[in-house]
Design goal:
The chain is 31% helix and 27% strand. The chain has 305 residues and is of the alpha/beta class. Strand 1, helix 1 (12-23) and strand 2 form a beta-alpha-beta unit. Bound molecules: NADP nicotinamide-adenine-dinucleotide phosphate. NADP nicotinamide-adenine-dinucleotide phosphate binds next to helix 1.
Length: 305
């Protein structure tokens, strides 16, 4: 029997990925939505979260798809109401608030899953396996995309708590922290802020261990989501956001599609709920917080979505 779940925040990612993943899932039945403007055909919709929770005691799990800044209040209310919670990435606006949610979930015996969809990309597991027994001599992340294409009209990305270019950059960091055999840490960063924005539009990060990252949200034309890793046994390239694995220029594994990521997240959530476990790894967000702490600030011209 599928478990009942509610989707909260019916915007771009809910409609692009969560709704199709739930429709195809043997584990879940989408039983309600909460959104001030969005709905899903054939599913009962609410505009008020407390109202949905009160009227649906049989919905045991909620999946929160709104931007990170407002997410804590919803997650806290859901856990207090005895519901399991799945968080879109990044899991919150600050590290401390997510640690607080993790503790609350543990106290209540509920599941909290801080998802990282890019970790479910097709080539991440084979890349991790290939790197497990080797030394990393250099790694370079290049994550350059067009914010106007992927976040049309989403002003929150440039407001405090929106993370700016780290909103996509944290996907690369979620892969990096999954596949490296040993952890690295940020040593320096350069952050480029448009004069009218509270968050950076570009960032370059220098990590320990000869690892670096180049994030830019101003790339028009072809988009780049690549990680290159040099090792004594050859060069590994993860392309297409972790979906295609190349070793020394030859494709070894993966599939040029992101469509498996959200079904894999919901399958994992079903397993976590079944066993009463949580999965909250904040390593990618720690790198972002450290870059924002250590980074020098460069101002550039105003930017409009
Ligand atoms: P979005 O479309 O701008 O927002 C999603 C929904 O959240 C909105 O439709 C809105 O619904 C609700 N919302 C916005 N502000 C809110 C607030 N202050 N309080 C309560 N609800 C609010 O954003 P999105 O692109 O779906 O991104 C949402 C999350 O998914 C982000 O964390 C993002 O990093 C992640 N994500 C996005 C993508 C992508 O391609 N865009 C990919 C992967 C992950 P109502 O106004 O109808 O209530």
């Amino acid at each position: 029997m599928p478990r009942l779940i509610a989707l909260i925040g019916i915007g771009k990612i809910a409609l692009d990925q969560h709704v199709p993943a739930l429709a195809a899932s043997p584990d879940w039945e989408l039983a309600a939505t909460v959104s001030r403007s969005g709905t899903v055909a054939g599913v009962q919709s609410y505009t008020d979260f407390a109202d949905m929770l009160a009227k649906n005691p049989d919905i045991g799990t909620v999946s929160l798809c709104m931007p990170p800044a407002p997410r804590f209040d919803y997650a806290h209310a859901a856990l207090m109401a005895g519901r399991n919670v799945m968080l879109e990435k990044p899991p919150g606006a600050s590290l401390a608030e997510v640690y607080a949610l993790e503790q609350l979930a543990q106290d209540k015996g509920l599941t909290l899953f801080a998802t990282w969809h890019s970790r479910m990309a097709h080539a991440v597991a084979p890349a991790k396996a290939w790197l497990a027994d080797t030394t990393i001599t250099r790694a370079l992340i290049t994550w350059r995309e067009d914010v106007r294409k992927w976040h049309p009209g989403q002003d929150w990305v440039f407001q405090a708590g929106g993370m700016g270019v780290f909103d996509p950059g944290i996907n690369a960091l979620s892969i990096l922290t999954e596949i490296l055999p040993r952890p690295v840490h940020v040593r320096a960063a350069e952050l480029t802020f448009p004069s009218n924005c509270q968050t950076p539009i570009a960032a370059s990060l220098t990590f320990s261990g000869n690892v670096s990252a180049d994030f830019d949200w101003r790339q028009e034309g072809p988009q780049t989501w690549d990680i290159a890793i040099d090792t004594p046994k050859g060069q590994l390239y993860l392309r297409m956001g972790g979906n295609v694995l190349e070793i020394d220029g030859k494709v070894q594994a993966g599939k040029n599609s992101i469509m498996g990521e959200y079904p894999a997240l919901y399958a994992r959530m079903a397993k976590l709920v079944k066993t009463g476990a949580s999965d909250v790894d904040l390593a990618p967000m720690i790198h972002v917080a450290d870059a924002l702490t250590l980074g020098i600030r460069i101002q550039t011209e105003a930017f409009y979505l």
